[in-house]
Design brief:
Elements lengths: L1 H14 L21 E14 L2 E17 L5 E12 L15 E7 L4 E7 L12 H22 L15 E10 L7 E16 L2 E15 L5 E15 L4 E16 L7 E15 L1
Antiparallel strand pairs: 1-2, 1-11, 2-3, 3-4, 4-5, 6-7, 7-8, 8-9, 9-10, 10-11
């Protein structure tokens, strides 16, 4: 009888399902599928202090993501376009038309992004009499503008393969540059975000976010600037849907400028609040 009982327990253990690595552990994974359409609303507020004057700019942009079949197993392709825009550019403060830009990329279920490209030009067409040198600078400025938006469009953090428990953290480091080695501006940014899992409740994972970045820029007139940014915020991941529900970060930046002809070295401070809100269409 005892031998039969031991045999029964052994069979039950062999046939039992594989449980998580630890009680309360959760495994994150993007679950994008071809045919899905996701809508992301990006709201931002910038409060800038420059030479004793304070300016506040607010904007809201709606980005549509269409999920297509990826290049191989575990990957999907994303096609993103900015469907509506509100803020300074939409109120006559800038002639930019963001709806003319389209962004594409391949995305792994871990969040790794590859083959990022953009098409279109958000800037108004240059005049026919523009000198070749100015035309080259115009094209580079147009490309830098699109490159800056490319990083905002494909903001999805890369998530770890291992399960997470409350108190665990993972970090995301990104390096990206804008501009070329010729005329015009050149910019290089290194950013790091640290995500700490606070709680898991009713299929949602709640995180605290810490954000730091350094940007170095070389201007067209030989001027240089260095910007340091530090921020914190929070985000929520829907485990069943395999997507973030929102991401809010409040940060402060200080930019030091030097080498601008005819101007003394100076600094500029900025407070920024950015929020991504995500929903499936």
């Amino acid at each position: 009888m005892k031998r039969s009982f031991i045999l029964l327990i052994s069979l039950l253990l062999i046939g039992a399902p594989a449980w998580p690595a630890a009680a309360g552990a959760v495994k994150l994974r993007y679950k994008l599928r071809p045919g899905q359409v996701w809508i992301v609303t990006l709201s931002s507020q910038n409060e800038m202090t420059f030479m004793g004057q304070k300016n506040i700019n607010r904007s809201k942009n709606v980005i549509e993501y269409r999920v297509l079949k990826g290049p191989k197993k575990g990957w999907v392709s994303l096609s993103a376009s900015i469907k509506s825009s509100g803020g300074p550019s939409a109120q006559g403060g800038s002639p930019m038309d963001l709806s003319k830009l389209t962004f594409t990329a391949d995305m792994h279920y871990s969040g790794e992004i590859r083959n990022v490209q953009h098409q279109g030009n958000a800037m108004p067409p240059p005049g026919p009499d523009l000198p070749p040198q100015m035309k080259a600078m115009y094209e580079q400025s147009s490309n830098m503008f699109a490159e800056a938006w490319k990083n905002a469009v494909f903001w999805f953090p890369e998530i770890p393969e291992d399960p997470l428990e409350a108190g665990d953290e993972f970090d995301v480091t990104r390096n990206f540059g804008m501009g070329g080695s010729g005329m015009g501006m050149q910019s290089q940014t290194v950013s790091k975000q640290v995500f700490t899992l606070d709680d898991v409740s009713e299929g949602l994972a709640y995180f605290t976010v810490r954000d730091r970045s350094v940007t170095k820029t070389k201007g067209m007139a030989g001027g240089r600037s260095a910007t340091q940014t530090a921020g914190k915020g929070e985000t929520v991941f829907d485990i069943k849907e395999g997507m973030w529900l929102d991401l809010t970060v409040k940060s402060r930046s200080k930019m030091n400028m030097s080498g601008v002809p005819g101007m003394k070295d100076m600094s500029q401070e900025m407070l920024q609040i950015s929020k991504y809100e995500v929903e499936k269409k």
